[in-house]
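sorry for the late reply, my laptop died twice this morning and i had to redo everyting from scratch. anyway the thing you sent over, i finally got around to it. pasting the sequence first so we're on the same page, its 220 residues, then the predicted structure underneath. double check i copied it right bc i was rushing
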Amino acid sequence: MAEQFENCIIIQGITKKGKTFRPSDWSDRLSGILSSFDRGHRLAHHKFVRPQLINQVRCVIVDKQLESINPDMFRFLMDFAGDNELQMCDGEYAAQISANIAVKATPAIRVAELLPSETALAFDALSAIYPQFTLEEFTLFINDFMRKEGYRMVGVFKADQKSASAVCGFRTRHSLRYGGCLRIEDWAASDFSAQLNDFIQTEAARLGGLTVRFCDEIVQ
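ok and here's the structure:
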């Protein structure tokens, strides 16, 4: 296995505290910043940055050549790993990567963006903040108005529950004052603030390094 990752740096989906990094598709999203369409019109990962599952741990493989070819992108990837306290190692140590600690430390949860057909799954979490809405009113208002203005939602789901236990509503915005930002408008985190924050930070990075702000931080 070591030869397969020779001259590479491996960013692991495990934090320095031994927890699994979320969202579950973070490695695909991070690798996607250098992806392009091939001749068959299929999205292909860059040869120097690719996602890889190693011993049940989601990782991103970064070829060290990227540092000389595209130093800004190389630094972005290293800063992403540092900012999120992700474990890294040289490719020669790939065989030693293990998910055992992370599996024991992380409850069975799923983090996913909610499609328009799934908006109702966010009602239980957000109704504590907005009790004036019935389920039908809540769903129609978000789908018929807010989503058309760029509003998106992500939820955290426990293995034994259909409705989201935690929800974040957000949209992107550009202004002269702040440049590009990912604006958080609704936040019902319960015990899952870290999981929501991980998703938002990864999405902001995927969209070009947007700044993350809560809506009350933005002057209209």
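Helices lie at 26-31, 66-69, 71-83, 100-105, 123-126, 135-146, 193-206.
thats about all i looked at so far, will dig more tmrw
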